[in-house]
Design a protein that fits this description.
Aminopeptidase; globular; OB fold (Dihydrolipoamide Acetyltransferase, E2P); 9 helices; 26% helix; alpha+beta; 5-stranded antiparallel β-sheet
């Protein structure tokens, strides 16, 4: 029996007459466990995620027709109708809200303290009861949110669909990049420790021992991630952390009670914005489908064997952002996927207004050993703009709390 349903959610606080809405596609039974939530297009101008979702829905439709859905799967194929409406001079501007300049994937609601107050006298020594109690309290806290603008209403809506999911996947892409994911350190290591000082030791997994594999590890393997960036808090309150970090925070507030990470949330960056093709994105969807299969959301035999992990995870606090010291035209000398050594020249900036040969070319060098995983997609630089990102193995001193770019 087919279980697929499509629900339309109108966006509160929409501009009068605009009638903006999102569709959520539901498979399985709402009373079933576990629950997975997947969305694409939160950054509305990032095409690869939409395509991966398109092919994933095809696979889920077939599975549903064959009665293979186990648990509940919710997909939101276009998560940001506000951004999809922001066209300027033949170019979609879907990353930032043009009404205030805020990134659509920042400032998601922090409901930790509100949830903590609700549960403070109700926690037990049973982790399963605590999980259910916390999710009930999260729902109350989300229902009590009062957004001040349209983007806030969108964030509340998306959060309300996913707060109680066991797996939350947010599909994105970078500018020009290799496949990479962002997820929580505690989700990766299966460790109760949330201390940044334990990060390096927590990353030392026994790759030959299946029992050491977390769901986040398996997600990275299935997606073919070539860079894996870990942080419990990356700064700016992105969507995936709104769903996952609350469990670590509540454990810190109530250390005497069994509270375990109960939401494996990740941002999946499907390479660069131009990496759209049926062959590539259909395989991405098959990989994601196989991951869901392995996690118990689908019955029958998994069609593929889980690939080996391509690279060790590294701390998000170890990412070097190479910024432009001057304005001009960028010539990148290295490409995403290359391993660099400290002191390697990464790019040159040509100043078209040069006054003499001394200021005509500015050379850019990396300061750490690491993997070059992302470049800006255009070749114009303004002073202070981030041009390249390099994933190092060790945290960088003085990095601060805001580890993500704008």
């Amino acid at each position: 029996m087919k279980t697929k349903t499509i629900k339309k959610h109108f966006l509160q606080l929409s501009m009068s007459g605009s009638g903006r809405f999102i569709n959520s596609i539901h498979y399985g039974n709402v009373t079933s466990s576990p629950k997975a939530y997947i969305q694409s297009g939160l950054h509305a101008d990032e095409a690869p995620g939409y395509m991966v979702m398109h092919y994933l829905l095809e696979l889920l439709d077939i599975a549903d027709s064959e009665d293979k859905i186990r648990g509940e799967i919710i997909c939101v194929p276009a998560a940001n109708p506000i951004g999809l409406d922001q066209w300027f001079y033949e170019r979609l501007q879907g990353r930032f809200d043009t009404s205030n300049g805020i990134n659509f994937n920042r400032n998601f609601p922090d409901i930790v303290q509100d949830t903590a107050k609700i549960i403070e006298t109700q926690l037990t020594n049973d982790p399963d009861k605590n999980r259910a109690l916390i999710r009930d309290a999260m729902k109350i806290a989300i229902d009590n949110l009062h957004p001040e603008d349209e983007a806030g209403a969108l964030k509340k809506l998306l959060f309300s669909l996913s707060f109680d999911a066991d797996i939350v996947l947010d599909l994105h892409c970078d500018n020009q990049a290799i496949m990479h994911i962002y997820t929580g350190e505690s989700l990766w290591s299966n460790s109760d420790s949330n201390s940044d000082s334990n990060l390096n030791s927590n990353l030392e997994l026994n790759l030959n021992s299946k029992k050491s594999f977390s769901s986040a590890y398996e997600l990275a393997a299935w997606t073919g991630a070539e860079a894996i960036l870990l942080a419990n808090e990356s700064g700016g309150d992105p969507y995936d952390e709104a769903c996952s970090k609350i469990w670590c925070k509540l454990k810190e507030i109530y250390p005497d009670y069994p509270i375990y990470p109960s939401c494996v949330a990740a941002t999946i960056e499907y390479r660069g914005e131009a990496d759209v093709s049926e062959e590539l994105n259909r395989q991405d969807a098959i990989n994601l489908y196989s991951f869901l299969h392995q996690q118990g959301y689908l019955s029958g035999d998994i069609p593929l064997k889980m690939p080996e992990l391509k690279i060790d995870a590294t701390p998000l606090s170890g990412v070097e952002h190479i910024k432009a010291p001057v304005s001009g035209v960028v010539n990148f000398l290295r490409r995403p996927g290359e391993m660099l050594k400290a002191g390697d020249k990464v790019a040159e900036i040509m100043n078209p207004y040069f006054q003499n040969e001394e200021n005509r070319i500015t050379e850019l060098f990396c300061k750490i050993d690491g993997l070059l995983f992302s470049l800006t997609s255009d070749r114009m630089a303004r002073q202070g703009r981030i041009l390249a990102k390099i994933a190092g193995k060790k945290p960088i001193e003085g990095k601060g709390k805001h580890l993500l770019t704008a």
